[in-house]
Structures are given as structure tokens and as C-alpha cells.
Amino acid sequence: MWNPAYRVHRAAILLFLVSGLSASVSSAENLPPAEESERVLDLNRTVATLLEERAFDEAIPLLHQALKIAKETGSFEGEAGALLNFGTYYEYRGLPDSTIFYLEEYLERFIDSDVAINMGNTLGTAYLSAGFYQKGLETYLKMLDLAEETGEDRMKLGITINLGNSYRSLGDLPLAIDSFLDVLSQAEEQQDTLVIALALNNLASINTHQQNYELSREYLQRALELNIASGNVRNQLTNHISLGVLYRELQNFEESFRNFQDALKLATDFEILLPQTQILYNLGTLYLAFDRLDQARDYFEESLKLSRENNYRSGIYFNEYHLGRVYEKMGDYPHALELYRSALQHSEESGSMEHIQQTLESLYTLSAATGDTASAFSYLQRFSTNSDSLIQAGREEALARQEAALGFRLEQENRMALETAYRNEQRNFLIVVGLLILLLLLLVVTAWFYKKKRDINELLRNRTEELTRVNHLKNNLLSVLAHDLRAPLSNLKGMVFLIRNQALKGEDINKTLEDIDNKLHRGIRTLTNYLQWAQSQWDGLEVKLMPLNIHQEIESILAEIVPLAQLKEITILNKTDPNLAVKADTHLLSVIFRNLLSNAIKFTHREGLILLESEKYKNLVNISITDNGIGIPSDQLKYLFEPKTYTTEGTAGEQGTGLGLSICKDFAKKQNGTLSVHSVYGEGSTFTLQLENVLAQTSSPHQVTLSAMESY
Question: What string of DSSP letters covers 33-60?
């Protein structure tokens, strides 16, 4: 996501600007040259202090005066300092193009000045803010070498943070993480709280992106505490944006909106344009996450307008891409495709492989959905090729170093080709004859391909569909595994914590170890179920049908499911006949009931009811699961059992994988059974599994009721 949470460049610059003494603003006329030079340096120090205090109206006249005197007197250091202050002013105001204008031309000229490293660091930040990621990386690397030569250790920390942001912008996550961890380690040794807060904020953003939400929240809370203690309001703004992004990913609309509003107020009060643009974009992503499309579109369009007016290349890309998502959800596919293509062009210009891949995937999916098979296959090919060639450490830098040598080599090769062509002029006749023969062969091959065109197109479509199916199977299987294994693994973590901290004694330890053993067995069984299902999609699955007591099977599954129901105070009643048995596979049956019960809990309101019943019909048994939840719209019933990449949110915002019901349908069929559904929208749903009946098996005669209100 486009936000300063992992791009804290300006705050890093603040660490290393030369702050100093205020000086009187008297006339510089008729002063000796030495006094005039000192006067310029005093003015520059005063301006730097005023810029840090956001006293822009006071700083600008002094800034122009300092630059004028420096040029008139030929003060090398004075002119360098004034140009740096100009670049810093525009960077503070969120106008990176103006910063580039003031500093790009003069960096080499003033490379030997005392402020060269600050100047280069500010320029690199402007490059990244404007979307020139490779230029930013190259500038930071050069400044890092210069800081090492001059022994400016604290400046090295700030540049290393910015290097980490450059690596992440270019898609090299490992190098980005290493950079932030290196800075954090050194800053903690030096007890430098401001640098610690910067590193923590950047690490938090990466962990949010990788869905390590608890770790991200811990980093951000610590960073915000440090920034509040030091009174650093600008970095507090960054923390609030990062928290807004985190809570958006956690589906907490209120907290996310509150943090974005707090950040927007700080940015507005301090008249900082770039963060305002970023916050408007993030508010758009918040409304998009909750399918409030009209509000999302308005925020994206407002942010896009500011980005275009100020040439924020990153902002243009992100807003165009997410506007495309909004219009795709609205059903305006031509507009969405147009925005995706424009976003792809901007991502290719910036060199961000992550953004290129993201946009290619959206273009492929939408092109396939609209029936444009040729374009979809082209986007899919590019996506697959890029997946195996993501940017690695130093790759772009190495290419840049070779550019000049490559150009010279190509020039030599062209010259040699011309000389060779001249020497071989007498053989042109034979070459022409050979080309004519080749042309004839090409005509024959073309005619043959023309006859086979229909078969080839059909084969191409089949391969495209197969590749899409395999990708969906892989992604959905991983999502289902994560869904079914996350909760038991979290419980295991809590149990291990209690044992490790000696919070349990005597019989409690034995009971906890027994629970751990049971949960591990269930987890292994769950993993085996889905791996067997995945195998069935390619190689076939060996199904072992045997007589199973349906009541007992459901009881064992409810032991896993009840904790989910307890969270929503939902009551589950098992009223199946204890003496009914069916011919089924115990693993496949477990997968079916676990998915159906999870769905019933997902779409049932708090304090709802789920009822399991059985009925013998001739040589068949019907097992039904009925809930009084939200029901299913009639227009969705026809496609309910088809695999898909999206699901409807549950009554408490729960997410699914879109694969569960298709697995259940498939597993029912493999057991010579059927799975059907009856639903009234707004009243609830009933799923009925029909299996072959076998001789009755005895079980406990009493009926078991599991309620979400009971202890687990």
C-alpha cells in the first residue's frame, strides 16, 4: 500500500539537518568578504531551524537572501547550504519535483561541501517520493559510501533506513528487512530513540503487508510511544497512517478511520501535501475493503487529482490501480481495464516488480472474465515469466554499472557486422536464393498452420483454463489449510505457554498434554484430508467406505467446532439417531461436516441455533444441518457448489476461501452420496447429505447437546 509507513524519508532527513543558532537579519551590504561568508552560514543555520519548526513564512525570505548573498560573494559552502534548504523546504511541503529541480543539477558540483551528504539524502528521498525508485537507490548508495568515508555514523543510519525503503519499493523484501534490522540494532546500542522509532515503523509496515498483525501492532505502539515522548509530531503522523493500515487489514473500520483522520488533521495543520494525498488514498482503500464503493471512488479520485497535479508517480499508480478495482466491482469493465493498463505503464516506468505483478494479475483476471482470451493469455505469460525473475540483491545496480560498457560493446558489434556484410557482398546471391527457399517453406508451413488454426486455438484455450485451474487449486488449498489449522495451532501455542511458565500443576498438566496430543492428531488429520483432496484433483483418491455410526462421527467433529460457536454464543444441537449407520469414508465425512458446520456458524447471528438431524429413507440416510442464519439469495443457489476465489462475509465479518462447499460436494459424490441445499433468504439454510444406509450400530442412548454457553 502507498503510505509513508514504510517510507519515512523526510523524518530521517530531520535527524541530520544542521540546526544551529538564530542570527540577526541585518543588511549584508558593505561587509568584508569573510564576514559576508559567515553571514550566509548564519542565515542558513537560521533557515534550517525555522524549517524544522515549520515557520515557513519566516524562512522563505531569509532563504532567498542567503542564496543571493552566497552567489554574490562566491561562498561555496553558503550556496550549498542555501540550495539544501530550498530542497528541504519543498520536501517538507510534499513537493518532490521541486526538490529534484533544486538539487539534481547541483549535487555533483557541491559534492565536496559540508552538506553534500544531506543534499544527496534529500535528493534520494525526493526521487522515491516521485516514483523514481532506481534513481533513489543509486543516490542513497553513493551517499552511504560518502558517509562511510567521512565517518558520519548517524547519517549512515538515516541513509540505511532510506535504502531499506528503496529495496522494498523495488520488490526486494529480504534486503529491505535486513536494512531495517541493522539500523534497529545499532540505534538500540546507541539508545537513539528517534532512529529506533523510524526503524520500528518501517518493520511494522512490512509485517502488516505479510499479515503478521500482532507483531506489527507491537512495533507501532512502541514507535508511537517513543515519538510522543520525544514530541516528534511528524513521525506521529506516520505512525497513525501505519495504524490505520493495520486496523484496515484487521477489518476494524472504526479504529482504522480514526487513525487516518488523526493523521489527516496533523498533515493539514502542518500544511504537508504529500501525506494528505496518501491519507486520502488510504481512506479510499478503507472504504473499498468494506465494499462502500462510492465513497472509495471519491477518495481515490481526489487523491489521484492531487498526485497528478504534483507529479507523485507512486500516487498516480496506486490510485489508478485501486480505482480500477472499484470500477471492476461496479461492473464497469472497460473503465477498469483502462485504469489497469495506465497503472501497468506507471509501474513499469518506476521499475517496481511487485506493482507490475499485481497489475498483470488484475489485467489477466478481468480480461479472462470479459472473454478476451488472447489478452488474458498474454498477461498470464508475462506474470508467470516475471514470477521467476523478481529483483534480487544488487541486480539493478549491476545492470546500471554495465550500461556504458554494453553500449560500447554493441557499437563495436555493429561496426564488425557492417565490415562482415561488406566482405560477404559477393555471396549475396546465394543468400537471396536461400531466403527464397526459406520463404517458400514458410508459405507451406503457414498454409498448414492455417488449416490447423481451429485445433490450435482450442488447445490454447484448454491449456489456459488448465493453468488457471491449477493456480486456483493451489491458492485455495493453501487458504483452506490456513483456515482449518490456524485456530488449533493458536490453542497449542497457548497451552505450551502455560506449561513453559509453570502455570499448571499436577493433573492439569496431564490434561493439557492430552489436549495437545488430541489437537495435534486432529491437525494432522485435517492436513491429510486436504492433501488427499488435492491428490484427487490430479491422480485420483482412494476412498475407503465402511460402516460408520453417524451420531458418533458428528460428536467427534463437534469437539473441534464448538469453540467457534462459543465465540458467537451459538447453540448446536445434535439430534441425529444414535443407532443409524452409513457407508462412508471417515476422513471425507469429517471434512464435509467440518465445512458445513463452520459455514453455519459463519452465517448465523449471535445466540443463533444450529440443528443436526437424521432420517432413514429406504436404503438411504439423510443427515441435515439447519441454521436460522441469514440464508442464501436465490440467484446464488445455482452456483453455490462451484469453486470460486471469493466468498460472502459472515455475520461477524468472517472470511472464507470459496472452496469449502465445492470440496463437500466432491467428497459426497466420492462416497456414492449427494449434497443438496434448501434456503430462504433472511430465514436460514438447510444442507442435506444423503448416504447409503447400513446395519445399525449401537451407541450411547442419550442425546448430546453442545451449546456455545458451555465450557470447553
Answer: HHHHHHHHHHHHHHHHHHHHTT-HHHHH
CA nearest neighbour of 621 among 556, 673, 699: 673
Which string of b and e fits 292-317 if b means at least 16 CB within 10 Å?
eeeebbebbebbbebbeebbbbbbbb
Residue entry with cell 442419550: 702
Domains 456-538 and 546-707 share a fold: no
Domain 251-395, CATH 1.25.40.10 — does that match? Answer: yes
pLDDT digits (tens, 9 = 90+) for 549-598: 999 999 988 988 888 888 889 999 999 999 999 999 988 898 899 889 98
What is the distance between the alpha carbons of residues 204 and 213, in angstroms, rounded to a whole number? 8
- Cα distance between residue 462 and residue 361, in whole Å: 19
d(CA 274, CA 258): 19
Instruction: Count the neighbouring beta carbons within 10 Å of the beta carbon of residue 470.
Output: 12
DSSP character for 657? -
pLDDT single digits (tens) 177-228: 888 888 888 888 888 888 898 889 888 888 888 888 888 889 899 998 998 8
| CATH, domain range 456-538 | 1.10.287
Give pTM, 2 decimals: 0.45
Distance CA 317, CA 40 (A): 41
Across 25-44, b (16+ Cβ under 10 Å) vs e yields: eeebeeeeeeebbebbbbbb
What kind of fold does domain 546-707 have according to CATH? Heat Shock Protein 90 (3.30.565)
The DSSP bridge partners found for residue 678 are: 686
Contact partners, residue 610, CB within 8 Å, separation at least 6: 565, 570, 571, 572, 573, 597, 600, 601, 604, 625, 626, 627
Q: Rounded CA gap, 179 and 160, in Å?
A: 6
> 456: which 3 cell numbers?
490450435
